[in-house]
Write a structure and sequence with these properties.
With 54 residues, the protein is mainly α. It is built from 3 helices and no strands.
């Protein structure tokens, strides 16, 4: 977790860059409509109830 969203995303981009090029991962990402593997790791608050902690 970090309060530096841009920095965290940049690190994730660097660490996850190759996943989008691996055929099995790419196929799974495509099935889910995900363009960038980092979108799986990035918390944008979707589906998260911050009050409840989950």
């Amino acid at each position: 977790m970090t309060s530096d969203v841009a920095g965290g995303r940049a690190r994730a981009e660097k660490n996850m860059a190759d996943y989008g090029t691996i055929p099995s991962y790419r196929a799974a990402l495509d099935r889910e409509g995900i363009d960038n593997p980092v979108d799986l790791a990035a918390d944008r608050g979707r589906g998260v109830d911050r009050e409840a902690g989950h």
